[in-house]
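User: Hi! I have a protein structure encoded as tokens and I'd like to know what sequence might fold into it. I'm fairly new to this, so please keep things simple.
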């Protein structure tokens, strides 16, 4: 950081901004140290949670030889005499003699003594009831342990639980999962100048963050109720203290919008001081998104809650979400620190001096390239609406066409895994 920047922050009475990568690592670490407790949940209630321990199977998968087709389980050379039938969910007696067969359904247990399975559509019945045909050379059944062996770890702790994970757990013989619940989040919107309906005018602007930040938080795996969104909160210190204290009563994370500076109506810092919070990160050297913060409060019983101060400018607020909130939530749920993909810049992107530049971009996943978008001012949302993420231009650098740079993806669908 330059001497001029250090002098400016010292004059303002705040420490120098944390580097962007350092801030991400720091908030992830404090989130992980305060990870939500592990609880047992029935499979039907585990969607959206996170595995608190590895998923291991209680049985071989499959647990027994299982027919892959409808047909005939045969022993020895044909033609074969039909001695029975075995359906899924039943056990057939062994085939004891060559030349014998049982009709078998897909998913049924293969009888002991079976040497081949003849597909039903490739078989014929003779006039005297015998079955004839030529079985394929490749086995038509699944062997025990073909997918997994008893006790094998299939998924690590920190895996998000989705319908596929629930189905796998059920196939492993599990009835419950040890998981961490989704974090509960709340939002406080600060600013007397904000309108909550209709077009802006007469010096007042429309609140774009009250409707959108909860949706972003849900996409990061949080639970946010309509009642957890409060604002605009009056621009007074008592109103801020009361609103934040109320939001913290039930939330693991409270996000606030605006008030992160030190102006005459910026009350977030005094509010945090009044509530006994300590800063995890107090400003980050990133543009747009300056200033942002993350603070921590610890109750007498050891319960930890967090406050993320998002800037009031809409795009800057989203930069704060991807920079601080996403890593924090990964830590709270015990998920791995988000690993950023790398992309090739299709066009130049300027640097921002001593600050990391998060530049909105469209991401061509097939080609692995990123294209900067227009309308990217910190108060603008048009560019964000057409972007897939932020290209990361590190301090003291600029991005030239062809450069490989990290990209912070936006979580574009509900429940998408953290990025």
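Assistant: Happy to help. Inverse folding works backwards from shape to sequence: for each of the 419 positions I chose a residue that suits the local structure. Here it is:
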């Amino acid at each position: 950081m330059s001497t001029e920047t250090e002098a400016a922050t010292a004059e303002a009475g705040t420490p120098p901004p944390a580097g962007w990568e350092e801030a991400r690592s720091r908030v992830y670490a404090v989130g992980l140290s305060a990870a939500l407790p592990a609880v047992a949940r029935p499979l039907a209630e585990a969607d959206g949670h996170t595995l608190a321990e590895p998923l291991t199977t209680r049985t071989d998968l499959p647990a027994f030889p299982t027919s892959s087709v409808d047909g005939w389980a045969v022993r020895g050379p044909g033609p074969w005499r039909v001695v029975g039938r075995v359906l899924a969910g039943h056990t057939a007696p062994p085939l004891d003699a060559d030349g014998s067969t049982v009709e078998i359904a897909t998913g049924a247990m293969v009888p002991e003594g079976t040497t081949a399975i003849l597909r039903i559509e490739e078989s014929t019945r003779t006039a005297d009831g015998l079955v004839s045909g030529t079985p394929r050379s490749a086995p038509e059944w699944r062997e025990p342990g073909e997918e997994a062996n008893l006790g094998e770890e299939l998924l690590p702790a920190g895996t998000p639980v989705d319908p596929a994970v629930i189905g796998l757990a059920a196939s492993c013989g599990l009835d419950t999962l040890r998981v961490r619940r989704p974090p509960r989040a709340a939002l406080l919107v600060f600013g007397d100048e904000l309108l909550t309906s209709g077009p802006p005018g007469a010096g007042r602007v429309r609140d774009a963050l009250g409707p959108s930040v909860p949706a972003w938080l849900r996409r990061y795996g949080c639970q946010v109720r309509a009642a957890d969104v409060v604002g605009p909160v009056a621009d007074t210190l008592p109103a801020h203290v009361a609103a934040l204290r109320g939001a913290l009563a039930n939330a693991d994370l409270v996000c606030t919008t605006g008030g992160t500076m030190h102006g005459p109506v910026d009350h977030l810092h005094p509010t945090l001081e009044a509530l006994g919070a300590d800063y995890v990160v107090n400003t980050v050297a990133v543009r747009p998104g300056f200033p942002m913060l993350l603070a921590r409060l610890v109750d007498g019983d050891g319960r930890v809650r967090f406050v993320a101060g998002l800037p009031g400018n809409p795009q800057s607020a989203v930069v704060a979400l991807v920079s601080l909130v996403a890593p924090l939530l990964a830590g709270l749920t015990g998920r791995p620190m988000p690993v950023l993909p790398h992309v090739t810049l299709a066009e130049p992107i300027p640097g921002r001096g001593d600050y990391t530049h998060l530049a909105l971009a469209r991401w061509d996943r097939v080609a692995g390239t990123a294209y900067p978008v227009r309308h990217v001012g910190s108060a603008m949302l048009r560019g964000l609406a057409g972007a897939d993420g932020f290209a990361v231009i590190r301090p003291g650098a600029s991005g030239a066409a062809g450069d490989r740079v990290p990209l912070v993806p936006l979580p574009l669908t509900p429940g998408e895994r953290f990025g």
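A useful reference point when you look it over: The longest strand covers residues 356-364. Feel free to ask if any position seems puzzling.
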